[in-house]
Amino acid sequence: MTTALPKNALCKSNRLDGVCYDLRGPLLQTATAMEEEGHHILKLNIGNLGAFGLNAPDEILRDVIANLWRAQPYSESQGLFSARKAVMQHCQQQGIPQVDVDDIFLGNGASELIQMAVQALLNPGDELLIPCPGYPLWSAVTRLANGVPIDYHCVEAQGWQPDLEQLRSLISPRSRGIVVINPNNPTGAVYSTEVLEGITALAQQHGLVLFADEIYEKTLYEAASHVPLAKLAGDLCCITFSGLSKNYRLAGFRSGWMIVSGDRRHRRDYYEGLRLLSSMRLCSNVPGQLAVQTALGGHQSIEELVSPGGRLREQRDHAWQRLDAMSGVSCYQPEGAIYLFPRLDPQHFGIASDEQLALELLQEKKILLTPGSAFNWPQPDHLRLTFLPTIDVMEQAMDSIEDFLGQRAC
Fold first, then answer.
1. How far is CA 382 from CA 163, 314, 327, in A?
2. CATH number of the domain at 15-54+304-406, please?
């Protein structure tokens, strides 16, 4: 039952209608209230690496401290030259063409830059093609820009690779761009070169902008290989997003970057829109920018964490094996990122609402997960959890989850 608003109530903007970001929504609010009552909640809902003792390399922190005096004034709107040059050199190492220092924007995390890039492109009613399941920020910022998010499906039986034929069928005269999240959040899929080439060909054919969300580009397992989308895009306008929050365990620094590549003549007006929005927020936080040069140019410690025997690799293997062995549960083994996206057989468990299931798990077992519907997945048969806790903590969590699901088996 909806409660009537009082007369002259102050209401939120209509632009927020349909905007959802359930990663920090009602379930987290319930968890916070439970913590205030004295309960300990194991939060597996977001990839907050520092909260689980996965700390940044000391050399990055030392560099920031030594140069902190430089962070007192504003930087250039697009960011410190030294940091942008480091990102440019990283592009060169990856084989991404047509990128110089002026093609790089630094932001308060990739999230701020994603919102900026979408706002600068979309007119009311324009469509943005977004992977399903996919990170919900993309749908939210599209709606905030008065655009229309269009979900294209990724196929679980095919390792969560995008369905290119379905994607092709969704392109319309109002389509403006295609979002590619690779490695994918929430599934952990790493897209094949053939799939990326297929997406690029569709964008080329229809004159669409490519948005490459590559925040987990270095978090890869086994023989998985990440191919930068901009490397395949050639003259096509491609906007790439990454940052320090995941590969370098510096989520709290809110330090991300956006790379604009492709034919400069074709993207000139859009680029000016990006510069305008960048200038309006003055600059991103400068202490976070100070970490970029050392992070990209120094020792890449993420490799030790994802290699055999590394902490992230071991935790992924353990959590995946436990989930996949549970009755009524199947789980794709992620090739990248830091999440598992298990499927719960609807007939085995009789699930009507994944949100209600996640709420009951929180209330009964004090474990916070994210329902698959938060990632625009249309069926109530998936949950997402991170495998960041140590194996002993994860083992206890898996015992609790297995017990919880066993009580709900039909």
1. 19, 23, 15
2. 3.90.1150.10
Q: What is the DSSP string of 290-309?
A: TTHHHHHHS--THHHHHSTT
Residue 213 phi/psi, 5-degree rounding, is -90, 100
Angle, CA of 235, 242 and 169, to the nearest 5°: 55
Which residues does 206 contact at the CB level (< 8 Å), separation at least 6? 171, 175
Reported CATH class of domain 69-297 = alpha beta
> Residue 336 and residue 226: Cα distance in Å, rounded?
9
Say if residues 359 and 30 touch (Cβ distance below 8 Å): yes
Average pLDDT, 10 consecutive residues per value, the chain (410 residues): 67 71 75 94 93 93 93 94 96 91 96 96 97 95 95 96 97 97 97 97 97 97 95 94 95 95 90 95 93 92 95 97 96 97 93 93 96 93 96 96 92
Residue with tokens 């680029």: 271
3-state secondary structure of 95: coil
- Residue appearing with tokens 């025997």: 309
Task: Give the model's pLDDT for residue 54.
Answer: 94
Q: Indicate the SS3 state at residue 138.
A: helix
Tokens of 60: 């990055």
What would the DSSP string read from start to end of 168-225?
A: HHH--TTEEEEEEESS-TTT-----HHHHHHHHHHHHHHTPEEEEE-TTTT-B-TT--
Secondary element (H or E) of residue 126: none
pLDDT at 1: 45
Q: How many CA atoms lie less than 13 Å away from 350 in the CB half-sphere?
A: 5
Asked if residues 333 and 190 have their Cβ atoms less than 8 Å apart, the reply is no
Whole-model pTM: value is 0.93
Q: Helix 391-406 and helix 354-365: axis angle, to 10°? A: 120
For 20, 105, 152, 238, 398, the CA distances from 258, given in Å and listed in that order, are 24, 5, 24, 10, 37
Distance CA(211)–CA(189), nearest Å, equals: 17
DSSP-derived secondary structure letter, 318? H
Residue 223: is it exposed, middle or buried by C-beta count within 10 angstroms (0-12/13-18/19+)?
exposed
The pLDDT, as a whole number, for residue 380 is: 93
Q: What's the pLDDT score for residue 266?
A: 86
User: Domain spans of the chain?
Assistant: 15-54+304-406, 69-297
261 touches 99 (CB < 8 A): yes
